[in-house]
From TrEMBL:
InterPro entries: Dynein_IC, WD40/YVTN_repeat-like_dom_sf, WD40_repeat_dom_sf, WD40_rpt. It is found in: Cytoplasm, Cytoskeleton, Flagellum axoneme; Dynein axonemal particle. The keyword Repeat applies. This is Dynein axonemal intermediate chain 4. Residues 222-232 have a biased composition (Low complexity). SUPFAM superfamilies: WD40 repeat-like. GO terms for biological process: cilium movement. Signal peptide: none annotated. It comes from Aptenodytes patagonicus. The keyword Cytoplasm applies. Keywords: Cell projection, Cilium, Cytoplasm, Cytoskeleton, Flagellum, Repeat, WD repeat. WD repeats lie at residues 578-620, 621-655.
Length: 710
């Protein structure tokens, strides 16, 4: 069969491939065949549409099929070859197969032509010509005989009736009698108002004089209008004058409230009020006698006496309840240690004075507290949650004894504050560590809450919470005289770092805390156990404390319950390891008087007393089944220390008893104690809790021993 086109040319389709009966066709699994099998070059596109026909009887069938396939697009048709069962040799498997991919014809599924054309396209001129012709037709249509108006009937929408009920509109006619004076005054008001606005841009003296003149003129006008007109114009004038006076008063009051002198006066007045309100409490804090007001007159003597009587009754009731509570916790061993009978002894107790709390700190957990190095009345408190699920924005507040009701400085932090400390070389600098691992330094002299420096741009910043930071003074050695101050931090990422304060904060590692295997004694006949694989090679750091005399040595507590003695000169290994706790070590503290002893507290409910030369605990204190979050030695005695666990605060006196605390203060329901801090110059204790309250207690009847040796 032959096919000819309209011009007589032979367009009969020819088959792409002529099969050879002697050639074995390999099995094809894809649409494109390899050129290695068919001997084609890289530019030849072979298709697997033809099938092997062993006999010549099917030649016509093959030609018909090829013509049928040629009339369609070969890329859209797939013909499955006959499956020839044969085993491939290793040479066939190792042979290289080349596949050539070419772009097929684009198939349009949906074509939505655009109604706009770019002015730079080829069809822009043609489209503009068509638009011009259409505009000419529209303009020439009216009055042209070629266009005939024709009526057409369309279906109209169904009409709907809608009724609305409303109140009847009442029309009223009102009238009033006016005179020419009323008309004159009403028109004259519109001329006075722009004049008064122009006067506002002048000086204060000019404003006051002009205002006085305007008031006199208005008063004259109102008198004249009262004589010969109704009261309508008078009311309009009076309202305008009152509005202008009110506006001037508001501007003046705003200027007074925002002035620096007024702010300073308010500051002094606030100080005086706080001194008057908290005078008895502050006197007890500073161990001064409480003064009474001698200027009370006889007229108010009855009221003052009634108030004093009510306060005395309340005080006696609280005193009785507290004495009953404290007597319940006086251990016989304490009485025997003092060599006194219960009738002779006056039990030591904690007397609450006041609390540092405000609306801003309410609900935030107290994470750390520290006194200023030069101002003993300035206290810095960090607020932040210890639990990952309870994280929210943190606060760092500076409280003063002169105002216990509102902090002097408030520094807003994006993350919870976990540690803070004042600098000794620059007392105005406050270093703050946060839960996300960042460190920031604030200037407490500035009222701006922005940080001077932060570790956000440091490449070596911590990746875990900064649980403790401290400014440490160290000797310069032979290179110079005096002492050098360094900022040291410990984090949950297992690093103890020293921060360099330059144009930006950057740190170097003092040591990386490596995990240590627990020493388990092997029982007789027990097989040797395989060592467990560690998830992380570094242990999370929880706390540290430098030696009070030799700042080259320090202790580091870890999450696995170990305490390592480290040296600043050696950053590869520990000097000693103290094993005694079964849970994370939350705090370690050297004794300030007996410098070879130190305390540690842990989540295993215990407090342990250590000697630096012995890796075995000397004493273990455990009085409650709760986490011990914080401990601190008394600055006045080598025997007294305070401990804060979740349920109560305890005062221990080792010269009296090593079994029970001498004072125990229980927490309120749903409140947990988090930190303790002794006052520097007085016998007072500060206690922070999980509700954001820092309570100040006075230590009463707790005599400090004369000896400073444990």
């Amino acid at each position: 069969l032959q096919v000819f086109d309209e011009e007589g040319k032979d367009v009969t389709p020819h088959p792409l491939f002529h099969s050879d009966p002697n050639t074995v066709v390999p099995r094809q699994g894809k649409l494109l065949a390899s050129s290695a099998y068919f001997g084609a070059t890289g530019s030849v596109f072979l298709s697997s549409f033809s099938m092997h026909q062993p006999s010549g009887a099917n030649a016509s069938l093959e030609q018909k099929r090829s013509r049928l396939l040629t009339s369609y697009n070969f890329s859209d048709v797939q013909v499955r070859q006959e499956e020839i069962k044969e085993e491939l040799t290793k040479a066939d498997l190792d042979r290289r197969v080349d596949l050539y991919l070419t772009e097929t014809e684009t198939v349009w599924i949906l074509d939505m032509p655009s109604v706009v054309v770019s002015v730079e396209s080829e069809d822009a001129g043609r489209v503009l010509e068509r638009n011009r012709i259409y505009v000419d037709i529209c303009t020439n249509r009216p009055g042209n005989d070629r266009f005939v108006e024709k009526m057409m009937q369309t279906i109209n929408g169904a009409a709907k009736n809608k009724e609305v009920q409303c109140d009847k509109i009442i029309m009223e006619d009102k009238g009033m009698m006016v005179t020419s004076w009323d008309l004159y005054d009403s028109f004259h008001i519109s001329e006075i108002e722009p004049t008064s606005k122009a006067e506002g841009s002048r000086t204060t003296t000019g404003k006051s004089s002009k205002s006085h003149t305007t008031k006199e003129h208005d008063r004259t006008m109102s008198v004249s209008s009262d004589r010969g007109s109704t009261t309508s114009s008078t009311m309009i004038l009076e309202s305008a004058v009152l509005a202008r006076i009110h506006e001037e008063e508001e501007c003046h009051s705003e200027a007074v409230l925002t002035s620096e002198n007024f702010q300073q006066d308010l500051f002094f007045m606030e100080r005086i009020l706080m001194e008057n309100i908290f005078q008895p409490k502050l006197a007890a804090y500073r161990q001064f006698p409480v003064l009474t007001d001698p200027d009370v007159t006889s007229d108010t003597s009855g009221t003052v006496a009634a108030v004093k009587e009510a306060k005395q009754e309340k005080h006696d009731k609280e005193k009785k309840d507290k004495e009953e509570q404290k007597e319940a916790f006086i251990d016989p061993s304490i009485l025997s240690g003092l060599n006194k009978t219960p009738e002779e002894i006056v039990p030591p107790r904690l007397e609450r004075l006041w609390s540092y709390v405000c609306d801003l700190t309410n609900g935030h957990s107290v994470s750390s507290m520290v006194w200023s190095k030069v101002n003993p009345d300035l206290l810095a408190v960090g607020y932040g949650a210890f639990d990952f699920k309870e994280q929210k924005k943190g606060l760092a507040c500076c409280w003063s004894l002169k105002n216990p009701m509102w902090p002097e400085r408030i520094f807003q932090c994006e993350h919870g504050v976990t540690a803070l400390d004042f600098s000794m070389a620059s007392p105005n600098l406050l270093a703050v560590g946060m839960y996300n691992g960042s460190v920031a330094i604030y200037d407490v002299r500035s009222c701006n809450d922005a940080a001077l420096l932060d570790s956000s741009e440091s490449s070596n910043k911590h990746t875990g919470p900064v649980w403790q930071l401290r400014w440490v003074e160290q000797d310069r050695g032979a290179t110079g005289d005096g002492k050098k101050e360094r900022l040291i931090c410990i984090s949950a990422d297992g690093r103890i770092t020293e921060w360099l304060i330059q144009k930006r904060l950057d740190c170097t590692d003092l040591i990386k805390i490596k995990r240590t295997e627990s020493e388990k004694k092997k029982l007789p006949g027990e097989k040797e156990r395989k060592s467990e694989a560690l998830i992380s090679q570094q242990a999370a750091g929880m706390c540290f404390d430098f030696h009070p005399k030799d700042t080259n040595f320090y202790l580091a507590g870890t999450e696995e319950g170990h305490i390592h003695q480290c040296s600043c000169s050696c950053n590869e290994q520990f000097l000693k390891t103290y094993r005694g706790h079964k849970g994370p070590v939350y705090k370690v503290a050297w004794n300030p008087f007996s410098t070879d002893m130190f305390l540690s507290c842990s989540a295993d409910w215990s407090i342990i007393l250590w000697h630096q030369d012995s890796q075995t605990p000397i004493l273990t204190f455990s009085s409650a089944t709760a986490f011990v979050h914080d401990i601190m030695w008394s600055p006045k005695s080598a025997f007294i220390f305070a401990a804060a666990n979740e349920s109560r605060v305890e005062i221990w006196d080792l010269s009296v008893s090593t079994l029970n605390p001498v004072i125990s203060l229980f927490a309120n329901p749903r409140v947990k104690f988090t930190s303790v801090l002794f006052a520097k110059n007085t016998d007072c204790l500060l206690v922070g809790d999980s509700k954001g309250e820092v309570s100040v207690f006075e230590l009463q009847n707790l005599a400090a021993p004369n000896s400073n040796k444990v």
